[in-house]
TrEMBL record:
Domain of life: Bacteria
Alphabetical UniProt keywords: Calcium, Hydrolase, Magnesium, Metal-binding, Phenylalanine catabolism, Tyrosine catabolism
Classification via Gene3D superfamilies: Fumarylacetoacetase, N-terminal domain, Fumarylacetoacetase-like, C-terminal domain
A Pfam family this chain is assigned to: FAA_hydrolase_N
Cofactor(s), names only, from the UniProt record: Ca(2+); Mg(2+)
The encoding gene: fahA
Protein name: fumarylacetoacetase
Residues bound to Mg(2+): 221, 241, 245
Ligand binding (Ca(2+)): 116, 189, 191, 221
EC number, UniProt record: 3.7.1.2
Active site, renumbered: 123
Annotated GO MF terms: fumarylacetoacetase activity; metal ion binding
Length: 401
């Protein structure tokens, strides 16, 4: 029996000892690096004496940056040590448990570069139909390489941060002139983010993902569809997706997903050798999207056409290093069914088929006051379940300046 008396700290609950995500919790003494145990957070600075040599200095600050830079051997050691500590019969000296629902989280690391992929075939085909009616929904390159665009690291915000409706240019097909103003087509995108660390690298082989990916966090890539449709050709989305991107405050170590790994489908024409996986790096994650109190969709990450290992290999194949704090997101996760689509653009088919909320209201795109929450789970060892920390955000009216 663990010294942690919390019914949510159990193998059949998402935040039991099989999960152990890291976050930075705001306490009366300032932000502290913590590990989540059920409904509680265990600040690591206070139990430094029980962590052994070298590890305390990686977790005694106010961010995960030193831990991210330290690399895989340290990540493994810390997780092992923490597993012993949280499953022991008695508390380590200095231990304090804080309720997660009474404290806020801050962005747990300094985001270096942010890249967003486009790796769900269902999403790419649906968006292709909606944005480029009449032409082939998938462009020729899509099955040969994981398509991506570079985002803005400075607008990645922690879960819980409000999102102001952005302004921008739009021009619908029948309009004579572009107009400027608040977006009328504000959307969410349910995605999975991968947080990088370790030595800055050159090319990363698919088999080396564990040396460079520290952990996993849910991402909402807020998108202004009217701004996007007007600006995106030929260089891809820009201001329509860079006003806010929300990241979960709890980052779950990649190691926690070792029982969730599934193969990625190989296209008929084969792959360039740098994209071939020697072991499967698809992940069997079940996601859930809620708007206010209504579950809108349940996408499955196992349906993705490109794995995070292939994405990482691709984004470094030209020699561009991956650095600690880099974040890459999977792209919108959509499945074949309507109830598995990862954004409103698809769920409402470009705004033509509204979705109903439980309060009787309907939505095509988001209204001010709407709250969007993404959650997820994965299979863990011995029938357990590994939880992904939620990412949530509320839409506010256009900011005054
Ligand atoms: O022009 C398109 O086909 C669409 C591009 C995107 O929506 C980019 C994006 O954020 C990709 C994704 O999340 O899957
Ligand atoms: Ca996206
Ligand atoms: Mg974004």
């Amino acid at each position: 029996m663990s010294w942690i008396e919390d019914p949510e700290f159990a193998l059949d609950k998402p935040f039991g000892p099989q999960t152990l995500p890291y976050g930075v919790l705001v306490t009366s003494a300032g932000p502290v690096v913590s590990v989540r145990v059920g409904r509680h957070a265990l600040p690591l600075r206070r139990i430094a004496g029980s962590l052994g040599p070298r590890l305390p200095e990686l977790v005694d600050g106010d961010s995960l940056d030193p831990l991210l830079a330290a690399g895989r051997e340290s990540w493994r050691e810390l997780r092992e040590r923490l597993t012993e500590i949280v499953t022991a019969g008695s508390a380590p000296p200095g231990a304090e448990l804080l309720r997660t629902d009474w404290h806020t989280l801050v962005l747990p690391f300094r985001v270096a570069d942010y890249v967003d992929f486009y790796s769900s075939r269902h999403h790419a085909e649906n968006v292709g139909h909606i944005f480029r009616r009449g032409s082939s929904p998938l462009l020729e390159n899509w099955t040969h390489l994981p398509v991506a665009y570079h985002g803005r690291a400075g607008t990645v915000y922690v879960s819980g941060t409000d999102v102001h409706r952005p302004c921008g240019q739009r021009k619908a097909p029948g309009d004579l002139q572009p107009a400027f103003g608040p977006t009328r087509r504000l959307d969410f995108e349910a995605e999975v983010g991968f947080v990088c660390g370790g030595e800055p690298s050159g090319r990363v082989a698919t088999s080396d993902i564990q040396e460079h990916v520290f952990g996993v966090g849910l991402v909402n890539d807020w998108s202004a569809r009217d701004i996007q449709a007007w600006e995106y050709q030929p260089l891809g989305p820009f201001l329509s997706k860079s006003f806010a991107t929300s990241l979960a405050g709890w980052i779950t170590p990649l190691e926690a997903f070792s029982h969730a790994r599934v193969p990625t489908p190989v296209p008929e024409h084969g792959l360039q050798s740098y994209l071939v996986e020697s072991e499967p790096w698809g992940l069997d994650l079940s996601l859930e999207i809620r708007c206010n109190d209504t579950v809108l969709s349940r996408p499955r990450f196992a349906d993705m056409a490109w794995s995070p290992a292939q994405q990482l290999a691709h984004m470094t194949v030209n020699g561009a290093p991956v650095r600690p704090g880099d974040l890459f997101a999977s792209g919108t996760v959509s499945g074949p069914e309507r109830g598995q689509r990862g954004c409103l653009l698809e769920l409402t088919w470009g705004g033509a088929e509204p979705v109903s909320l439980e309060d009787g209201e309907q939505r095509t795109f988001l209204q001010d006051g709407d709250r969007v929450t993404l959650g997820g789970t994965a299979p863990g060892p011995d029938g357990s379940v590994v939880g992904l920390g939620e990412v949530t955000g509320t839409v506010l009216a256009v900011a005054r300046r």
